[in-house]
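Entry for the shared binder. Reason: the reviewer on the internal report wants the predicted structure included alongside the sequence.
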Amino acid sequence: MISMRLRHLCPLTLRLLTVLFLLGGLSACAVKTNSRGGYTYGVDTAALFGTEIGQFALQSGGEGTLRREGTKFSVKLSGNQRVIPLNNVDAARIARSEYVGARTVVVIETQRRNCDYRYTVLAIEGSDVLSWDLGNCRDRPAVLVQDDRSAMTFDFPKGSNIERFVYTQDGRMRRGDVKTVAGLNPRAKPFADESLYPPGYLDALRQHGVFPPPAASAAPAGKGGKSGKPARPAKPAKPASPGTPDAPARQTPADTQTAGRVVPPPPQRVPGSDAPASTASATPRTGGASRVPAKLDLPDEEITSTRLDLRD
């Protein structure tokens, strides 16, 4: 009786083991491009023996995984089993992931020999991947996204100026030097945090619902529109003389200055959410939210991308 049961269980066990081996084999498959533009198929040893460092969501509904196998780093895209190698890297982590246009833009922070901060930017749409290499090896960039997700800025300190890279939804990366960027101090140490936000960014969103805060974004104005001179305080009204009706004191509106009314920038949205950030201010704010200034001047110099066409 027992032998009959064993005979019936053995085929079932073998089938289950076969299915498990097939599933494991499929998950460990890898498709890479060679130097001639062709494809090489093989076993993804990083999936079998490597370590997952981090993951990010793709607009297609799948996910990407940053892995390490020994001294080798790579990114694997689920669904199409494509692998993107990260060459000559000593350490790597996923710093940011955002949707810009139709692509998923992933910012991978890497450490290399004699270079503490170097960034690989991947713009992924299906199996079409664009890649750039950015960084000055000394500073983390301040990375912000336009609220309509049409552009993404990478700002690096460069002396007293800012070196700005702008990725746009048409898959192009531009570079230029700008003198000032609202809310950014090129002398600040650190220039940005581990999530690549400038100092005070999240606090400004929580307290004011906008970055930079209104006080920081308002430029000082003096008499005759000249900047750098404080506005002259209003003179107190003279007391009314006896026998005459009380004269109302002249008041300066709280929301005005000598150069005109200060209009705070539109409210900001909390990173990673489509809902506006809750604000502690009692003053209601209206208008579209913006993570960076509404007017974004595009630099003239275009940075050529490395195109990783992973399609069949």
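Summary line for the report: The radius of gyration is 28 Å.
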